Fold these 2 entries.
Entry 1:
Amino acid sequence: MMVGKDQDLGLSLSLSSSQNHHLLQLNLSPSLVPSSANQCYSPSGIFPRTKQALLSLIYPNTESLRAETRSFLKGIDVNRLPSTVDCEEEAGVSSPNSTISSSLSGKRSEREGNNNGDELEIERASSHGISDEEDGDTSRKKLRLSKDQSAILEECFKEHNTLNPKQKLALAKQLGLRPRQVEVWFQNRRARTKLKQTEVDCEFLKRCCENLTEENRRLQKEVQELRALKLSPQFYMQMNPPTTLTMCPSCERVGVPQNASSAVDPRSHHQLVQSRQPRHITINPWAPSAPIPHRPFDALHPRS
DNA sequence: TATATAGGCGTAGTTACCTCA
DNA sequence: CCTGAGGTAACTACGCCTATA
């Protein structure tokens, strides 16, 4: 199945091309709006075994990466968890319920409100990468993901914009983050992607509207010109008499006679159809025209 | 088999913190 | 140094789906 996977704005929005006029795919990132929360999971095992392996994919020039990372990490890397957390991850303590901190929120807090408060404190403290004594107050410190962490997360997001628990754990371990942090990052990333996609779509529709307005204006003008011509006597002088067409009663195809006196003989057209008389149709150029076939988004392609 | 419930995960919206001009 | 704007990690509330009793 071709799911228009949205990667960094992966616009599956096929804008006009001269070849596929009518093919407007305003793909609103279906992958972002899963019909079911559980349908987005992709096959596991997407991540390189080591961060270095993955980073080497992202940054073929590993030396430049290291330099970049070094320069960036000159400051304090608040995201580096205390070793205890790594141990915790190693031991898989968080795996049974990777959403310990998420249990703080929403419905889960109602349902799982019996969480151990101490655990939560530890969770909070470790998530901030600071010691307990520094985190006496309940205010949340804003942590910043390092550049390489973000790069890895981005890379994984390109692969799959949702993670199954296994992938989440693996990635968290790889990055030295808590699964909850990875989860939140993916949530926020999806939200950002969707927001940008919405902006792009909005811009696109705005252009559609402008083009349609322009097309409408042009057609109105054309109508006016034709009306003016109709009123002009000279126009009648130049006009041919109303065209006489003959419609074949069998296939209902309309034939234009070579000259006015000889309409198409339906018998020569369809030997078998002899009982029905051809219908003559007088074309009135000023009669309301047949409905114009709908050309969706034709106005998107302004005539050059 | 139908139903209630719990749990997991998703999104939308918001808050709080950090960075930078 | 102060400040406002923008970016983003984290949180809250709620809906949907699935497994299970």
Note: The beta strands of chain A are 244-247, 254-255, 279-282.
Entry 2:
Amino acid sequence: MDSSQLLKGVLDLAVLAVLKERDGYGYDVVRRLREAGLDEVGDASVYGTLRRLFKAGALTSYVVASDEGPHRKYYGLNDVGRGMYASSARTWAEFSATMASLLKEAE
Amino acid sequence: MDSSQLLKGVLDLAVLAVLKERDGYGYDVVRRLREAGLDEVGDASVYGTLRRLFKAGALTSYVVASDEGPHRKYYGLNDVGRGMYASSARTWAEFSATMASLLKEAE
DNA sequence: TGCCACTATTACGCAAAGCGCAGTAGTGTG
DNA sequence: CACACTACTGCGCTTTGCGTAATAGTGGCA
């Protein structure tokens, strides 16, 4: 199974999770996701997800100048984003529990 | 989060899991998945998955006449399918563990 | 000076896959 | 004869992750 397909529908949640810890900019979010174990995530996917979540009203955004490269566009969760995180995390927990029991039956 | 997106990349594994228990035909697989908790799975998705897995050489297929409706096209796992199941299940386990730790950090 | 390498973002288009819906068809019930 | 349930197929839509290219700033090295 191509693990990239597994990200469908979950990358939003993963991005919300790292931003819930603390604000971050695109490049930083990519690094943190990869360090967390999602080492195959593409940078374009993360940038796209950030834009999508921002457009959906879940994120705040502010630009910060950097002394070691170009400017950085930081993103952070607002109330909508925190609500989205909570409900997505719950949905994910239920779904993964369902899959776990399904796989256990097939053993 | 739309839980239908979560199925992407996982429906294959779910179908392989129910067929690993015992052979089944499309309509039957749909029912068993829904009973297992994947109540939102669409029938067209399952039929498509069965065809795709069969085309990929993971399934055997045989038609059985039914006395309570049209004929039934049964599917079962062959060696390729069992191998696919094993590797997909392992990939899924690793992925869900990664997500679990990511969500735990964000608490 | 010129050439990389790293940081950082955006835009374009592709491909996979689940789903809605329509269509076909067999069986049994009122 | 209309309807409901079973059972399968095909078409087109949408979402979404990804590959690739383009743009741009900074710093190191020969």
Note: Chain A has one domain: 3-105.
